[in-house]
Structure formats: structure tokens, C-alpha cells
Write a structure and sequence with these properties.
Structural class: mainly alpha
Number of domains: 1
Radius of gyration: 16 Å
Strand content: under 5%
Order of helices and strands: HHHHH
Low-confidence stretches: none
Helix content: over 70%
Largest sheet: none
Distance between the termini: 50 Å
Oligomer: single chain
Mean pLDDT: 87
Length: 141
């Protein structure tokens, strides 16, 4: 029997979301005033970081099954910031604290500085409608 390969692994999803976050941070930096798009961009970044943080345990499970504890712990430490930043950004977006959003966006951009996104990407605008999704997941409207 051959191995079953999951084409939609947590690692692939993390890579796609990282690129989308970088694109959203760039677009957020271009915003000159607070608009619906600005709110959607910040909300999307918060949601995407939370999805990344939720996928960390899935990624390290295979390493832990093989006894690669150091590798899995290092990976967890590498991405621990994502869950913390997601929570801070989520609360800042919902409370309309744009100074904190700007500061967190700069920190996120630094963390993802190595991620390359080409100008001719196929990501589109994944942030459209993200504020409503963020509000619905927190039970606030």
C-alpha cells in the first residue's frame, strides 16, 4: 500500500497564508485613512494569523511521533508569536485602536520579512469581507 499524501497540508496552508498576510500588510501600509478596506485588511491579518497558530500542532505531530522533540519545540517557538499577535490584533481591530494595529502590522511585517510575494501573484484580495467574519467568530456585530 502506498502512502497517502495530503496536498492541502498545514505547511502549504501556512505558506499561502503567510504570502497573503504580507500582501495585506503592504496594502494596509498604503492606506491613508480608515476605510472599510482598512478594517477588512486588519481583520484578515488577525484571522490568518489565528489559522496559522491553530495549524502549528498539526505540523509538529509527525515530528513528535518520530521522536524529534527538539525540532518540534523549535518550530513551536518560531511560530508562537502568531497566536499572540492574532489575539492582540483582533482586539485592536474590534476596539478600533488603529495605533496598535499599525504597530502590530509593523511587527508582523518584520516576522514575515523573508516571505517573497511576486507582483504577478494569484492571491487576489482575500481580505474582502474579513471584518464581518471576524465579528461573527467573536459573537460581536
Amino acid at each position: 500500500m502506498s502512502r497517502v499524501i495530503n496536498p492541502d497540508s498545514a505547511g502549504k496552508q501556512r505558506t499561502q497564508l503567510s504570502k497573503a498576510i504580507v500582501l495585506a500588510v503592504r496594502e494596509l501600509a498604503r492606506q491613508s485613512s480608515i476605510t472599510d478596506q482598512t478594517r477588512d485588511l486588519a481583520a484578515f491579518i488577525a484571522i490568518a494569523l489565528q489559522v496559522i497558530a491553530d495549524g502549528i500542532d498539526v505540523s509538529v505531530t509527525a515530528w513528535e511521533k518520530r521522536g524529534y522533540w527538539v525540532k518540534s519545540d523549535k518550530f513551536r517557538m518560531e511560530w508562537a508569536w502568531s497566536g499572540q499577535s492574532a489575539e492582540k490584533l483582533r482586539s485592536s481591530v474590534l476596539s478600533e485602536d488603529w495605533a496598535t494595529v499599525a504597530m502590530l502590522s509593523a511587527q508582523i511585517a518584520q516576522k514575515l520579512a523573508k516571505v517573497q510575494v511576486s507582483e504577478n501573484n494569484r492571491l487576489g484580495k482575500p481580505w474582502v469581507g474579513a471584518l464581518e467574519q471576524l465579528r461573527s467568530t467573536t459573537g460581536r456585530s
